[in-house]
Amino acid sequence: MAVGKVTDESDGVPELMPRVLLKTLLSSSAKSDEKEAIVTRMQQLRGSNQEALSQLLDGMLAEVEGLSAVWKGLRWPFPPPSYRAKLGILSRILDSVLDGETEPRRKRSAMSQLVRQLPTAGGVWALQKEAVRRNKRAVSMEEMLERTPKDLETPKYTVLAQKSGWEVRNYDQFSVVSTLMDSSFGPGSFNALAGYIFGGNKEGVKMAMTTPVINQGGSKMSFVMPPQYWDPQETTPTPATNDIKIEGEGGGLISDSTKLAVMWFGGFASKDEVTKRKAALIAAIKADDAWEAVDDSKDPFLLQYNDPFQPPWKRRNEVVVPVKERAPVAAKSAAAA
To answer: How many CA atoms lie less than 13 Å away from 181 in the CB half-sphere?
Structure first.
């Protein structure tokens, strides 16, 4: 497949040449409006022509990967003067983001995230400094809250107990809109739910986005409904298709218990990383004197708070297990007797 340029006449989008776009995005003289226009066009392609966007991102990746090792290895104590020098910095950031991953879909995702940052980061040199600074910081809950979108509503909770790297929360009731996922999931489930939120319902009601996106065992994805629909008596907009469902109790997140053990982490929520974090949370709960899982057999939930264009050092992810307070030892002994 050719990656020199992308033409998408069906969207009224002119040809998009990877090298030309990268030169504009990396240029210190290009206006921020020009850079934002490129990002906007790419976001439009994401919704209307995923194949064209993939081709464009592959072209950008080819431009970066084709750079010589000399340029990739240069370190600059000040903003670099040339396109190839800036491309070398972008290459190092990309390698850091991917952390050894080579799967094409993941590489495209990483490139799109970095492209999204370039108009507002103050240039690729400043973006690299931010990435290094953020990666050195301890991933505390305070840091996670900084990474949470400030303009999006999120379910309300009270922290009951703070542990080392995790905490126990008590959640208020909230409702979600959900759809089932399959093993071939790409952007399909996300786009189906976003379509409902943005007016693709029978009443044509457009709603505000919320956070987080809830993933239940890789089989169901849910968006949190806006707060005005958390009241069971409130009528929600009707889904236009049978695969979209409105659910209470957080779509199952708080059906077993409103008390949830939560472990947070940054970076990509890849399958391997999520599996590792879930195991760590389950082990931490088992070792805790005060709390225990409601049901050890159930797979933990995954919560993701950021849009797909956020780089890993700005992401907030959480794995979640419903818990209950452990019965005191004396009470257990009496019950056994």
So the answer is: 18
Nearest to 93 by CA among 26, 40, 17: 26
Q: Tell me the CA distances in angstroms from 330 to 131, 152, 220, 244, 336, one per residue in order.
A: 51, 46, 40, 48, 10
Half-sphere exposure (Cβ direction) of 337: Cα atoms closer than 13 Å: 6
Enter the pTM of the model. 0.75
The most distant pair of C-alpha atoms in the chain lies apart, rounded to whole Å, by: 79
337 residues of the chain, pLDDT tens digit each: 344 555 444 443 345 799 999 999 999 888 889 999 999 999 888 878 889 999 999 999 999 999 999 998 888 888 898 999 999 999 999 998 887 788 898 899 889 989 988 887 678 988 888 887 776 666 789 989 999 999 999 999 999 999 999 999 999 999 999 999 875 445 688 889 999 999 999 999 999 999 999 999 889 999 999 999 998 878 999 999 999 999 999 999 999 999 999 999 998 888 888 999 999 999 999 999 999 999 988 899 999 999 887 888 889 999 999 999 998 755 554 555 5
**Cα–Cα dist 332/329, whole Å:** 5
Q: How far is CA 319 from the centre of its chain?
A: 13
